[in-house]
Amino acid sequence: MEDKEEISSENYANWFALYHLCQNIGSRKAIHISSVEFGKILNLSQQTASRRINQLEDIGWIQRKITGKDQIIRITKKGADVMLAMYKDLKQILEEILIVGEVTEGMGEGGYYVRIKEYYDQFREKLGFKPYFGTLNIQLSDLNKELLEENLKNRIPFIIQGFEKEEEGYIKRKYGSVECYDCIVSRLDDQTKKINGAILKIKRTHHKKNIVEILAEPYLRDILKLKDGVRVRIELIKKS
Fold first, then answer.
1. I want to staple 216 with a disulfide (CB 3.0 to 4.6 A). Which of 41, 115, 179, 197 is the partner?
2. Closest to 236 (Cα-Cα) out of 90, 88, 93, 98
3. What is the pLDDT of residue 151?
């Protein structure tokens, strides 16, 4: 592809400059900016920033119009296509980065909620399996949690609808909705056994920071021989 060829080692500096121009233009069509101001953004001298702008114009990634000491810069379609190609590359890289966490002791919260008939019936119907009465709790680092959250933004979850249920004394209690994302869980040190499951995204939970709950049909601690501290890999499944 032409755009792929343009994002070459010789063009890294130009792409970096284009990226910062796009950042500053935002939703506007163009930006008024001097080479001095652009140099400050790139942490470069005015001369180098001016040369970079000239290069971007020469290769057709921007158009500019000189207005006194300032210039009006607009990103061309060719420049936008280059940004889109880089976005697709980075998106694919992000999706392929391993999300790894450590098995940790749960609070029994997952098992309590899975047993509730209104939740259990929806899990069975929407996830396509009979869930074990409990969840596997995985502790993620800040980086892995951010990677997971960024990946989930681009996926459509199964929604387990919330409901109201009468408790003792005829008091109605509200149970919130749950977002579920298909995933595969395996031991990081042994990829021979991979188990299908679902990440549960619960709005209200008492878990400590960066805990992810995984629901599956089998008892994951047993079938994968997991103890607290064992590192596991979470793979997100793309819907066809």
1. 197
2. 98
3. 87
Query: 178-187 and 190-202: which strand pairing?
Result: antiparallel
Segment-wise mean pLDDT, segments of 10 residues, the chain, 240 residues = 54 88 87 90 91 93 85 93 88 78 86 91 95 95 91 90 80 88 94 95 73 96 96 82
**Which residue type is seen at 72?**
I
Sign of CA dihedral 152, 153, 158, 162: positive
CA distance 45 to 62: 20
3-class secondary structure, 32:
strand
Architecture of the CATH domain 2-91: Orthogonal Bundle (1.10)
What is the spatial distance between Cα 50 and Cα 230, in angstroms, rounded to a whole number? 54
Sorted by where each begins, the domain ranges of the chain are 2-91, 99-236
The answer to whether the beta carbons of residues 161 and 144 sit under 8 Å apart is no
pLDDT for the residue 5: 46
What are residue 212's DSSP bridge partners?
138
Q: Is the dihedral of CA 95, 100, 103, 106 positive or negative?
A: negative
At 215, list the tokens: 């629901």
Torsion of CA 130, 155, 178, 163, to 10 degrees: -100
